[in-house]
Hints:
The complex is a heterodimer. Chain A has 13 helices and no strands. By secondary structure, chain A is an all-alpha fold. Helix content of chain B is 25%, strand content 32%. Chain B has eight helices and 18 strands. In chain B, the strands form four sheets. In chain B, strands 6-7-8-3-9-10 form a six-stranded mixed β-sheet, with helices on both faces. A five-stranded antiparallel β-sheet of chain B has the order 13-17-14-15-16, with no helix packed on it. In chain B, helix 2 (96-106) runs parallel beside helix 4. The longest helix of chain B has 18 residues, at 170-187. The A-B interface holds A 169, 171-172, 174-181, 189-190, 193-194, 273-279 and B 51, 54-56, 75-78, 81-83, 85-93, 102-103, 106-107, 134-138, 140, 143, 150, 167. Residues 17, 20, 22, 40, 42-48, 196 of chain B line the site of adenosine-5'-triphosphate (ATP).
Amino acid sequence: MSRPPSSLIRGIGAHIALAGYTAIALFPVAVIVINAFKSRAAIFSEPLMPPTAKSFSLIGFETISSRGDFLSYFVNSATVTGVSLALILLFGAMAAFALSEYRFRGNALIALYVALGIMIPIRLGTVAILQMMVNGGLVNNLLALILVYTAQGLPLSVFILTEFMRQISADLKDAGRIDGLSEYKIFFTLVLPLVRPAIATVAVFTMIPIWNDLWFPLILAPAEQTKTITLGAQVFIGQFVTDWNAVLAALTLAIVPVLILYLLFSRQLVRGLTAGAVK
Amino acid sequence: MTAPEFALKIEGLNKTFGDFHALDNINLEIKPGEFVVFVGPSGCGKSTLLRIIAGLEHASNGDITIAGRRANDVEPSKRDIAMVFQSYALYPHLDVRGNLSLGLKQAKKPRPFIEAQVLKAAKMLALEELLHRRPSELSGGQRQRVAIGRALVREPQLFLLDEPLSNLDAALRANTRLEIARLHRQTGKTMIYVTHDQIEAMTLADKIVVMNKGRIEQIGSPMELYRRPLNTFVASFIGSPQMNLVPGSKIGLKDVSLVGIRPEHLTISADDGPIQGAVSHVEHLGADANVYVDVADIGLIVARVAGDVEARPGETIRFDMRPDLVHYFDEQARRIN
Ligand SMILES: Nc1ncnc2c1ncn2[C@@H]1O[C@H](COP(=O)(O)OP(=O)(O)OP(=O)(O)O)[C@@H](O)[C@H]1O
Ligand SMILES: [Mg+2]
């Protein structure tokens, strides 16, 4: 198919703009990753050069594996992020289904109340949260982080999923009801698969802040056995000396799981399953 | 157990959405095996009534009895009904076989029975080749047949169809209309069919329910509605082109508020017909022609004339009408003759 030249030019222009944006977005990540594999001297002398045979060094990774229990930090981060994400998606989708599907008194009010959570940062409540966790005996317990992150992620998840679920054909759900599907089955087998792209979007947007968060791990779970990887990496940043090799190596490792999850979800983002559902 | 007298009986049914009165005192009786069509303009409450019958919506008050059993509080799946939706509403994650069998699986019917039912329905609707396809891999007409098949396999007492043909093109629509009529004959089941197309209503129905603004205007067989419409709404809704409604005073009938004359009951008169005007437009349909005539004081009048007409726009033309085929209405638009 041939396209008129003007749209060809526009296409090239768009690609240049996108390529530029990609380069800007990837630059810091690339700097972290290439410097993680270099000796300390090389990091400072030529920060933008990829590692050469001479400057290549795994010293950062060696430091990590020798000092601190990095594997356990990793497991902690993965547990907190994974469990929080699962709870956010499950409860968010369920609340969204109720808000979009059923007419009941206070429906709009609840939706508004939930949406308010998007605008008010949860960190404002840190003191109260800390008191609550102390009273509940949950300090230095991963459960504390999971609860906080679930609360933090739910508003956006409910908000986005409610909008998406409103789009799903009412006839489809009614056909399910006539065929004798329970409301749970309608939710899990008819509605959830159709909002999969939206769920993937929410997952990506909520996962990254949780994985990267330093604030709540520092306040609620700073103990050695509950440290997350972002908190763990801080041991290498000292007031006077910073072990850059170790910091960059830790950050490089921290990127890997997020990247994997992102790739998993983004496949879903693109794949629309709705085609042919109705009409 | 003797068969109940009515497949469906609705008494004193009302439905309000907030302040809006969507259905107003609906009373309706449908005999087993009848093909009933709800017609009416958009927004008159046809779908709402159908959804209340299906149990997908609660009535504000009133009683629904399905096959002799009070059904107000019965779940949709237990009402012994099946519904075909305008948007087909096929399950996107299941293939045709899965779509057809889901209802029976939910009802915990034995496997061999399900298999037999699915094959029977697939055969009736020529879907055998498509059993492994997903809805997204089907054409519009095929999807429609799957939607009808999904209703068939359950062998319900009552079929509910909400504008099942409105997404099909004209040729397919005519075919599927015949198909539905054939299915009704073969199964002998009671069917309720919603449409706003009066041709579908006239061709399919044993009984037509004409609705307007949440009220039932008239119930009757197609020919009853055609011959004796109870009010001007029914009179102009049934029949194509629409019935001409002329103020009685304009044609010398002092006691009649409105006179209704069907276009096909006007005949061209050689000399002294009572209606006279200038031809404004002629639609040639082949077997007959619609002649639009501008009559002084009255406005545009349509006549449906058999064969071809010579009349040219601008020419003066006169019409006769048969007095026995004319409808008289009073000030409240109710029939008086
Ligand atoms: N859930 C609802 N809340 C408020 N009003 C509603 C609701 N459902 C339907 N209505 C109103 O009730 C009236 C009847 O709707 P209904 O869908 O039954 O019309 P219809 O006769 O099927 O029209 P159409 O031919 O366009 O399908 C409409 O005016 C509609 O706006
Ligand atoms: Mg409708």
